[in-house]
Write a structure and sequence with these properties.
Helices cover about 80% and strands about 0% of the residues. With about 475 residues, it is mostly helical. It has one domain. Helix 13 packs parallel to helix 15 and helix 16 packs antiparallel against helix 17. The two termini are about 45 Å apart.
């Protein structure tokens, strides 16, 4: 009985029904291995990046709850900065994957060149604006409710330093997005691992003043991140500039045609434009959501930062599978095999559910120990921060299957070019439902952090309820990118 149930949930012949088949399907072992070959490096990359980011937070947390809040306050303004590049990268990955499937290498490289020029110009413009308006942005994000002036001033310093590196970050992300589109997820794994390891090393040196370096505390954490980003960009450029026998599918040269190409730009703006709607809406929603949570006070906001670090780590498992789904769906649509696109999208979602169950159990079991890792035990209010964080992790554990499924299904739809649908659902859920539920939880019901998370994360279930039928129905098969 159990074997039959698992077969209906996992076997390729059940995942793609007769009406959707265009040819022979691979056997189960081959199909799942193909998906994991692309997904595993992305999962490793993103999980390690998130873990290293958590180490970063732990190092800052050693300074106390105030420092955690200072680093947490700029998070949503920074995400607003990056949202246009997240959208651009969605377009790059989907388009390069489609061109790879169509065997149009020149078009794939033209897409990369145009994306890099667009990213550079846009990042310089946004960085200039953000640096000029750093203080108002921090006040808008909730800094006007900071309990001490130091929390606010440290947040402004952190934000400004990180913003100076926006062009560096944007270009590196652009190259990595293109490499993921052709399935070279191992390249992006090594680039981002090296970048983050450098970040951690300089965190150790600059936050507390070790190895002869000055003690810069929160500013040191920002400077360390900038150094790591610079290393990452250097490595990313090497992967596309290397020539001779090391010349890859994606490559750049000063002799290339460095002018905006109409066809490439139209494709980028068509796919990336819809993703930009989603990103702007999502970031606006998270911005409001974070401001509401900041009003709960330094202790609960510090606990929220701990939970967000764990949320980010678990999110990366789904994100890695989502990258694989985007690449596999796009490549197979380029080969005119929409049935294989559907198969691999569903396989990635099945992987996501299985992994999320394990993650949920681990969070439930270790939530107290995990909470204690992120804050100095002898700092003020540490016990209260740990208590709120550990209880909120009960919600985090319960939401895991929905969170990872949402990420993978949206990645599959993006790979198919169905970005507008994803954008509309995500925008409604995150921009409207999540802040609304948070306002009800905090202002009306006067819940503390755990209750706010229950209400706030409920919208993830709504997203899955819309994404899964859309992908399974196959309406995306004829989308052009």
């Amino acid at each position: 009985m159990l074997g039959r149930l698992l077969g209906r949930l996992l076997a390729p012949e059940y995942l793609v029904t007769e009406e959707h088949r265009l040819g022979d399907l691979p056997d189960g072992k081959t199909a799942y291995r193909n998906a994991m070959t692309i997904a595993l490096p992305s999962i490793i990359e993103m999980v390690l990046m998130s873990l290293i980011g958590s180490v970063d937070t732990m190092m800052v947390g050693g300074l106390g709850a105030g420092a955690l809040s200072s680093v947490g306050l700029p998070t949503q303004p920074r995400m607003l900065q990056l949202c246009m590049f997240f959208a651009l990268n969605v377009g790059i990955t989907a388009i390069v994957a489609r061109r790879k499937g169509e065997e149009r290498q020149d078009a794939a490289n033209a897409t990369l060149r145009n994306a890099l020029m667009l990213a550079l110009g846009l990042s310089v413009l946004l960085a200039g604006i953000a640096i000029a308006f750093a203080e108002p942005l921090m006040r808008l994000a909730g800094g006007d409710r900071a309990e001490t002036e130091k929390v606010f001033s440290d947040a402004v310093d952190y934000f400004r330093i990180m913003t100076y590196a926006l062009p560096i970050n944007a270009l590196s992300m652009c190259i990595c997005a293109a490499q993921r589109g052709i399935g070279k997820t191992k390249i992006t794994m090594w680039v981002n691992m090296a970048s983050n390891l450098v970040n951690v090393f300089f965190n150790y040196c600059l936050i507390a003043g070790n190895l002869g370096f000055p003690r810069l505390e929160v500013r040191g954490a920002a400077i360390a991140s900038v150094i790591g980003m610079t290393v990452g960009l250097g490595l990313a450029l090497f992967t596309v500039l290397a020539g001779g026998k090391h010349k890859g599918y994606l490559h750049l040269s000063i002799h290339d045609r460095w002018q905006f190409d109409r066809d490439s730009m139209q494709s980028i703006l068509r796919v990336g434009g819809n993703a930009a709607i989603e990103q702007l809406g999502v970031r606006f929603g998270f911005f409001i959501y974070a401001r509401i949570l900041f009003s709960l006070g330094t202790v609960m906001y510090a606990a929220n930062q701990i939970c967000m670090q764990l949320l980010n780590i678990t999110f990366t498992f789904g994100d890695g599978l989502g990258v694989a789904a985007t690449a596999l769906v796009g490549q197979n649509l380029g080969r005119k095999r929409a049935d294989l696109s559907m198969l691999y999208g569903k396989i990635c979602q099945r992987y996501a559910v299985m992994i999320s169950i394990v993650l949920g159990v681990l969070i439930l079991t270790l939530r107290w120990q995990l909470s204690a890792l992120f804050i100095g035990q002898n700092t003020e209010n540490a016990d209260q921060v740990i208590w709120h964080a550990a209880n909120t992790m009960l919600v985090l554990a319960a939401i895991q299957p929905f969170q990872t499924s949402s990420v993978v299904l949206s990645g599959s739809l993006r790979g198919a070019g169905d970005n507008l649908y994803v954008a509309l659902i995500a925008t409604i859920c995150v921009s409207v439902l999540r802040p609304l539920m948070a306002v009800i939880a905090v202002r009306v019901l006067h819940f503390e952090l755990m209750g706010t998370w229950i209400f706030g994360l409920a919208e993830i279930i709504v997203r899955v309820a819309f994404f899964y039928p859309r992908f399974a129905g196959g309406k995306w098969k004829d989308k052009k990118v």
